[in-house]
From TrEMBL, chain B:
Composition bias, Low complexity: 1-10
Designated name of the protein: FtsW/RodA/SpoVE family cell cycle protein
InterPro entries xrefs: FtsW/RodA
Membrane topology: Multi-pass membrane protein
Naturally occurring in which organism (per UniProt): Streptomyces roseolus
Length: 550, 466
């Protein structure tokens, strides 16, 4: 019997060994896979177990946390949520994170290894650091001015500091309270349903993620392309443009809402927004030249992060001449985000160079030690400095005595460009009123701010210079705040239009001009045959009706 | 072992001088260690949860210490030669179980179980003391073979007349107290098997026909035991208490094998088990679901119903990793309603890690090994079979439930011995400890009788309980 007892004992030992091997399998070998299973709530529990770090605007947090006592414990709260929603986004136990809450989640949630006191510290202690803070570049007075100006109308405002790329204001309207999405339960679900089904799309970040036809504001890009390509050598010289202008290869006539556009100079065309001149110039520059110019400004770029991703602004690469003509005045398939158009204005203001736009100045640990600082980086050279200087002059003229008169600020040099864009089938959609501008204090060495404003304005009609009517005053108010802040910071001895950074790079010398395509002999400047060469009929691709773009 | 005895001849004493010392002091020190570890765990839970030692930690320690001391005194005076490891291991496991249940209570303030469990543990230890005091010789149980089997069947059939809980009819409720009589039937059946098999050893081994290679005992001998066993397994399947039916099956096969030494039994047992399991698994929906869940624990996640209990349990184990999250810092409460009973091991795995889990398994292994050791050292077949049976009950329980909650085998409801919430289980297991103490005492005690002759098998290896 002894032998059999021993064998029975061995069997029990075998069972135990099986248990141990299985324990190793579950707890070590497959552990990673099990931990990462989306149905495993431990990750979420750990993530919300501590208050998130704060998102800071002008030295004050615009976020907070409240202890809900639930399993996913700390819920996000927002101070002036609707105002800053396009910047912060939401951080929801149920719906995840967006915008800065998403892009800087590692810092805010404390998982970023840079927050740990020592390398691999958190891995060893199985803990996580307290959430760090994210300091934004937003200036509260400008943000508020923009929000007030939009006044709940559908639209967006983006303001940049041209020299550095800092985003000073980022407003989308109508907005929403991100705090209602914090937590779990039926209230959050109802709020989500309400917000996502609302016809006003309050959760859409129109400043970064919505593209609009830019209308006449795109004429700045076309003008830069024409000057850089040598199509126009003298901005004050008359161009050879008929009025009315027949789109090449079609019988379509392109109307103007401005007067005196026949053979008008580039200067006049920008001052009064002549469709015919700019469409003609676009055709003269040619498809390749226009595509290249648009891409130098940042169109067709999907890689831009600020650190939230930005929707792609488009300029079609494959068009017939008539479509190219329409695209050159911001119609047809040309679309742009408000941020993109702010970059266009900033490029002019900053002598042709676009600084990489960014929203997060620096991230810090919960104790305030800097973890990471966003450096100033050159994003693109949109045009040559000389072109930029000429455009500055023309944009100033458009404000001083042109379509943008509503944006004038006493005691400052302001340049701007209006735009109106129709859209929808047969242009039945609410027109968009655009205004892009930049402003420079008279006693300052460089422009303080570049702005793009877009408003869906039912009052705008193509005969009205509505970009100047409804969008320009908003831009003016925002720029006024920027100039005021700049003056304040200079008075207090801090350079730059902000009080957050100690030292500033000196004003940059003009960089080397961008690649300037030489005028091609096959494309002689400023002389276009008046006879319309036979060409294939236009593709029925969203060609507008009698679209005017004042 | 070739000279089966069917009589109650007094067991023979080995040569003098082989018997080891009593080792009661060792037991006392180990008991103190067990109490200390449990109290430390209790304090740690308080620290993790409130940042302070629970106010009643000292009381808890004192209570556990008092239980340990009383049990130790009973052993010291009534079973002085008993194995010194059995009692400390049982106490440590019970103490840790209380800590884990208390820790889970913190997450479920509306459903507290630690106090109840402590009462049951006290009752278990009290019963342990009673058994140690009253039962002076394990061979006295031999005479109660048929009484105990009748009682076991009665206990098992009883719950059929009570409402089912969580799909299993294994409870009887009297007033506010619920009890699983099937738990206690384990011991009774082990006693019966041991008594019957030891009484019919030779008949089982040599009588009967040969069929092909297998020597079958006559039905006269085999009939009653198979009938009893089939009856009990049948009843349990009827009550949906699969864990216990699996346990009885394994217990029966092991004891039969130890009694007869025929490997055929194991083979036949395994074949029968496989056939029965397959049959039940495909016919019975409740069991079928368990098997499905075992084959693919994540099916419900993919179907969008969220993780099932087994998936949650595996998540908990995975979260533990090598060192665990620390007591009171895991989230095994996500498992749901059975977290304190069937799935208590998941809490241990998550919060103590693979290291802690291995320690627990080794404690069980040590306990089982000491039971087997007592069986090896004994001279009477009944005692041997009883020791092997009782140790196997613990081993099989651990395997069935630990394998179930870790996805090794299909999940069957059963309590982790000493560790899990469940009054009946704790009390039953304390009685098992008492019987093993009694058996090991008689195995290690120096006996005045003359040495037995005719034992040609391997002499019993005995060692001092180091």
């Amino acid at each position: 019997m002894i032998r059999y007892i021993r064998r029975a004992a061995a069997l029990c030992l075998l069972l135990l060994a099986a248990l141990l091997v299985n324990a190793v399998r579950v707890m070590l070998v497959e552990a990673g896979e099990l931990d990462a299973n989306p149905a495993n709530r431990r990750g979420s529990i750990a993530r919300w177990a501590e208050p998130r770090g704060e998102i800071v605007v002008d030295g004050k947090p615009v976020t907070g946390s409240r202890d809900s006592g639930e399993q996913l414990r700390w819920e996000r709260t927002y101070r002036r949520g609707p105002l800053y929603a396009p910047v912060t986004g939401y951080a929801s136990q149920t719906y995840g994170t967006t915008m800065v809450e998403h892009a800087e989640d590692g810092i805010l949630a404390g998982t970023d290894p840079m927050l740990a006191p020592l390398p691999l510290w958190n891995d060893l202690t199985r803990g996580r650091s307290p959430g760090g803070d994210v300091v934004t570049t937003i200036r509260a007075p400008m943000q508020e001015a923009a929000y007030r100006g939009l006044d709940g109308k559908r639209g967006a405002v983006v303001a940049l500091e041209p020299s550095s790329g800092r985003i000073l204001a980022l407003v989308s309207s109508p907005s929403y309270e991100p705090g209602v999405l914090s937590g779990t339960g039926p209230d959050v679900k109802d709020a989500w349903t309400r917000l996502t089904t609302s016809p006003n799309q309050p959760m859409l970040n129109r400043a970064l993620r919505q593209t609009y036809p830019p209308g006449s504001t795109f004429k700045i890009v076309t003008a830069a392309a024409a000057l850089d390509a040598g199509v126009v050598r003298d901005v004050d010289a008359p161009t050879d443009t008929p009025d009315p202008f027949v789109l090449p290869g079609t019988r379509q006539v392109l109307p103007n809402s401005a007067r005196g556009c026949e053979d008008a100079s580039l200067a006049y065309a920008l001052q009064w927004s002549c469709n015919t001149v700019m469409a003609g110039l676009g055709v003269d520059v040619g498809l390749a030249g226009m595509v290249e110019a648009a891409e130098r400004f940042g169109f067709d770029d999907t890689t831009l992060r600020v650190p939230s991703w930005v929707a792609k602004s488009t300029f079609d690469r494959d068009m017939s001449p008539d479509q190219l003509a329409l695209s050159s005045i911001g119609q047809f398939n040309t679309t742009a985000t408000p941020l993109q158009m702010a970059m266009v204005a900033a490029a002019v203001a900053n002598t042709g160079e676009i600084a990489q736009p960014y929203l997060v100045d620096r991230t810090t640990t919960s104790g305030g030690a800097t973890v990471d600082r966003t450096p100033r980086r050159t994003h693109r050279q949109a045009m040559s400095p000389s072109t930029a200087l000429q455009l500055q002059r023309l944009m100033v003229k458009a404000v001083d005595e042109g379509t943008g008169a509503n944006a004038a600020i006493p005691g400052a040099r302001v340049g701007g460009k209006t735009g109106t864009a129709q859209h929808g089938l047969g242009n039945t959609g609410t027109p968009y009123a655009w205004f892009i501008a930049w402003a420079q204090a008279e006693d300052s060495g460089r422009p303080a701010v570049a702005v793009a404003v877009v408003v869906e304005d039912a009052e705008a009609s193509r005969t009205d210079i509505s970009g100047g009517g409804s969008a320009a005053p908003i831009a003016r108010d925002v720029m006024r705040e920027a100039l005021r802040l700049e003056a304040e910071s200079r008075a207090s001895g801090t350079p730059g239009a902000r009080g957050t950074r100690g030292t500033d790079p000196p004003p940059r010398p003009h960089g080397p001009p961008g690649t300037r395509p030489a005028p091609r002999p096959a494309d002689p400047p400023a002389t276009r045959p008046r006879t319309i060469p036979p060409s294939p009929p236009p593709r029925p691709r969203g060609a507008p009706g009698t679209a005017g773009t004042p | 072992m070739t000279a089966p005895r069917t009589t109650d001849a007094p067991p023979a004493a080995p040569p003098p001088g082989v018997r080891g010392p009593k080792r009661r002091g060792v037991e006392l020190v180990l008991l103190l260690g067990a109490v200390l570890i449990s109290v430390c765990g209790y304090a740690e839970v308080g620290f993790a949860h409130d940042g302070a030692v629970p106010p009643d930690a000292a009381r808890y320690g004192a209570g556990l210490g008092l239980l340990a001391l009383l049990a130790h005194l009973a052993v010291r005076f009534r079973a002085p030669y008993a194995d010194p490891l059995l009692l400390p291991i049982a106490l440590l496991l019970n103490g840790l179980g209380l800590v884990l249940i208390y820790r889970l209570d913190l997450e479920t303030p509306h459903d507290l179980a630690a106090t109840t469990q402590l009462v049951w543990s006290t009752l278990g230890v009290a019963l342990f003391i009673v058994v140690v005091l009253v039962l002076r010789d394990h061979r006295a149980l031999q005479g109660y073979a048929y009484v105990s089997v009748a009682a076991a069947l009665a206990l098992m059939i009883l719950p059929i007349f009570f409402p089912a809980v969580n799909g299993a009819r294994i409870w009887i409720r009297i007033g506010g107290l619920s009890f699983q009589p099937g738990e206690f039937a384990k011991i009774l059946l082990a006693v019966f098997f041991a008594a019957y098999l030891s009484a019919n050893l030779s008949a089982l081994a040599y009588a009967g026909r040969r069929i092909w290679k297998f020597q079958f005992p006559t039905w006269r001998v085999l009939g009653p035991i198979v009938a009893i066993w089939l009856l009990s397994v049948g009843v349990l399947v009827l009550e949906r208490d699969l864990g216990t039916s699996l346990l009885f099956f394994g217990l029966f096969v092991i004891m039969l094998y130890v009694a007869t030494g025929r490997t055929g039994w194991i083979a036949i047992g395994l074949l029968l088990a496989a056939a029965g399991a397959f049959l039940i698994g495909s016919v019975e929906p409740h069991v079928h679901g368990r098997v499905e869940d075992w084959l693919d624990p994540y099916a419900s996640i993919r179907a969008g119903h969220g993780p099932g209990q087994l998936a949650q349990s595996l998540f908990a184990f995975a979260a533990g990793g090598m060192l665990g999250t620390g007591l009171g810092l895991g989230h095994s409460v996500l498992i749901g309603f059975a977290a304190k009973s069937d799935f208590i091991l998941a809490t241990a795995g998550e919060e103590l890690g693979l290291v802690g889990l291995t320690a627990l398994f080794l404690l069980y292994a040590l306990f089982v090994a000491r039971g087997y050791r007592a069986g090896l050292a004994l001279r009477d077949p009944f005692g041997r079979l009883l020791a092997v049976g009782l140790a196997s009950i613990v081993a099989l329980q651990v395997f069935v439930i630990a394998g179930g909650v870790m996805g090794l085998i299909p999940l069957t409801g059963m309590a982790m011995p000493f560790l899990a919430q469940g009054g009946s289980s704790v009390v039953t297991n304390w009685v098992i400890v008492a019987l093993l103490i009694r058996v090991s005492d008689s195995a290690r005690a120096p006996l005045p009788e003359a040495a037995e002759t005719g034992e040609t098998g391997e002499p019993a290896r005995v060692e001092a309980g180091r």
